From TrEMBL:
<dbReference type="InterPro" id="IPR000086">
    <property type="entry name" value="NUDIX_hydrolase_dom"/>
</dbReference>
<dbReference type="Pfam" id="PF00293">
    <property type="entry name" value="NUDIX"/>
</dbReference>
<comment type="similarity">
    <text>Belongs to the Nudix hydrolase family.</text>
</comment>
<dbReference type="InterPro" id="IPR015797">
    <property type="entry name" value="NUDIX_hydrolase-like_dom_sf"/>
</dbReference>
<protein>
    <submittedName>
        <fullName>8-oxo-dGTP pyrophosphatase MutT (NUDIX family)</fullName>
    </submittedName>
</protein>
<feature type="domain" description="Nudix hydrolase">
    <location>
        <begin position="2"/>
        <end position="141"/>
    </location>
</feature>
C-alpha cells in the first residue's frame, strides 16, 4: 500500500494559534478548520530534510510567510484516510511565528480564511475537527505551551 505523506505546521504567536479554513475545492476536509500544510512533493526545494522543507514550502505557499531560519519542533505523526479513501501519514510540526510575520491568504484555492485562536477557545469550538484540535494540543506540548494542571 502506498501512502501520501502530509506535513502540517502549527504556528503560535502570543497566546494564539494560526489556523486556516481550507479552500472549498480541496479534495479532503474542504471548508474545515485546519493547520497550514500539504503533501510532500518529489520536487520540494531545499535538498535537506524533506519534512522541514515541505513545511516551509507549504507555509510560504499558503500564507506567504518565509520560515527560513525559524526552528520547527516535532509534535506528532498520525495515520488517516482522506474523504476520497487515500491513506495518509500526517506529520505535525510546531513553530513560534516571528512577530514581524504578517500572514495572508497567498493561495486562495487552498485557503479560504485565516483565524487566530487560543487553545481553550478551540477546545470549546464544536466546528473544530478533532484532528486539528489534537494537532494544536500536541504542538502546544512540543513548544512547552501546555498550561500546568
Amino acid at each position: 500500500m502506498k501512502y501520501a505523506i502530509n506535513v502540517d505546521v502549527a504556528l503560535y504567536r502570543g497566546d494564539e494559534w494560526l489556523l486556516i479554513v481550507r479552500g472549498l475545492n480541496e479534495e479532503h476536509a474542504a471548508g474545515r478548520l485546519s493547520l497550514v500544510g500539504g503533501t510532500v512533493d518529489t520536487d520540494t526545494p531545499g535538498g535537506g530534510d524533506v519534512l522541514l522543507d515541505t513545511a516551509r514550502r507549504e507555509v510560504l505557499e499558503e500564507i506567504g510567510i518565509d520560515m527560513a531560519g525559524v526552528p520547527l519542533a516535532y509534535a506528532e505523526s498520525v495515520f488517516f484516510v482522506t474523504d476520497t479513501g487515500n491513506p495518509v501519514i500526517n506529520v505535525v510540526l510546531a513553530a513560534e511565528l516571528p512577530a514581524c510575520a504578517k500572514p495572508r491568504i497567498a493561495s486562495p484555492e487552498e485557503v479560504a480564511g485565516l483565524r487566530w485562536e487560543t487553545l481553550p477557545s478551540l477546545e470549546l469550538d464544536e466546528s473544530c475537527p478533532a484532528w486539528t484540535l489534537q494537532g494544536v494540543q500536541r504542538a502546544a506540548t512540543a513548544l512547552g505551551r501546555t498550561p500546568a494542571v
